[in-house]
Amino acid sequence: MDVQAQIKEIVESHPVVLFMKGNAKFPQCGFSGRAIQILQACGVNDPYTVNVLDDADIRQGIKEFANWPTIPQLYIKGEFIGGSDIMTEMYQSGELQQALKA
Question: Which of 8, 13, 65, 77 is surrounded by the fewest CB atoms within 10 Å?
Answer without folding.
Answer: 13
